[in-house]
Amino acid sequence: MKFGVENLACRRGEVTVLTGVTFEVAAGEALILRAPNGAGKTTLLRCLAGLTPPVSGKLGFSTEDVAYAAHADGLKAQLSVEENLQFWADIFGTRDITPAVETFDLESLLTRRAQDLSAGQKRRLSLSRLMLTGRAIWALDEPTVSLDTENVARFAAAITAHMAAGGSAILATHIDLGLPSARTLDLSPYRAILQDAPSDDPFLDEAFL
Amino acid sequence: MIALLRRDLRLAIRAGGGFGLGLAFFLILVVLVPFGVGPNSDILSRIAPGILWVGALLSCLLSLDRIFQLDYEDGTLDLLATAPLPLEAAATLKALSHWLTTGLPLTIAAPFLGVLLSMPSGATFWLVASLALGTPALSMLGTFGAALTVGLKRGGLLVSLLVLPLYMPTLIFGAEAVRRGAEGLPATTALLFLAAITAGCAALLPFASAAALRMNLR
Questions:
Q1: Domain span at residue A174?
Q2: Which residues fall in a coiled-coil region (chain A) (predicted)?
């Protein structure tokens, strides 16, 4: 699904972090966000997911179409892998969890409790949730953290399949996933203020807004 | 929608889920009061309605900070906020599951514990009725308080301070209904007030809780 934003300003807490962000992503395309730590990748993704309303600017899509995957895995430690997946499937009105389980190779873990999983297995479970949402735009915040190379490839295959089916994605990541049609967007030009700079300094405002 | 309720109930009864915490506290309080006050059954039966209601209220308070905090910490709340389920519905279901794991067990246990406080048998009906009508309001007000403080570490104290004044009317009418019932006076007015408080909470607080959650997730 095609989506874009125009002249978007987002904030984190009370601080406006990004201004003037403009981009468009076509159906079947992925946009990779590159920026140093603290530059506003998470802020932008939370804004796209509808968690933070934009300060100004326009979202050219409905946040109802965005599936958001955050830093945190969002798993319940006391529930089994299957119960965790089934919960999200019920919430998103998806009947079948099998495709998600197969894509991320979770069959052997289905009955295990989430608290007994390794960090990489938790991440896989958390990412497999995306497939249950049935949503066209995936907004992913550092999705490959704690995944090994084999599972990064598995994840890249899942995104590729998602894009081949007409979906699109926006990812904040530091590694190369080898996605077929991916563009890179550097967020540095859109930063509202330099980190650690006093925001009430008129010279800094002039220079960096 | 039912999935969230089912998950919360399942989490509550699994290890570390906190089911029974409120009930155990209630039990301890009611067992200890006769030791503190002395075995004079006249005094006990006079203070029984108040003790039972205060006990129920405090046990409700005990588990409030768990309503959203755990979901907030592991990231589930962010994901729920982006899910098709409206946050208003999520807040209602959270309040309902809090009531099912706290208010309902208290309501069922209260008549048996009333015996320990030598509560007059005529008051039992009024006790159960007032708790059944009043404790849902406690859960809903508590959910609102929990939603307001969801981002705060150790928000438990703040929730208590925020919620306690809101609990006052429920406590006053609840205890009053039981006291009047125990003395054989008509208690319907107090019960009607309790029902009105609960109905008002059910109608308004899900929206307030959802708004508070949205503010805190920003």
A1: 3-74+116-208
A2: none
In a domain, A21, yes or no: yes
Interface test with A, best of B5, B19, B76, B93 (most A CBs within 10 A): B76
Summarize pLDDT for A119-166 with one digit per residue, the tens: 888 999 999 998 888 888 999 988 888 888 888 888 888 888 888 888
In this prediction, residue A18 has a pLDDT band, given cuts at 50, 70 and 90, of confident
User: Strands, DSSP E only, in A13-96?
Assistant: 15-25, 30-34, 56-59, 66-69
Domains contained in chain A, number: 1
Instruction: Say if A87 falls within a structural domain.
Output: no
- Is residue A27 in a domain? yes
Mark which residues 48-107 of A lie under 8 Å from B by CB: 49-53, 63-64, 66-68, 70-79, 83, 86-88, 90-93
Q: Using CA atoms, how far apart are residues B48 and B159, in angstroms rounded to an integer?
A: 27
Q: Which residues contact B39 (CB under 8 A, 6 or more apart)?
A: none
Model ipTM?
A: 0.83
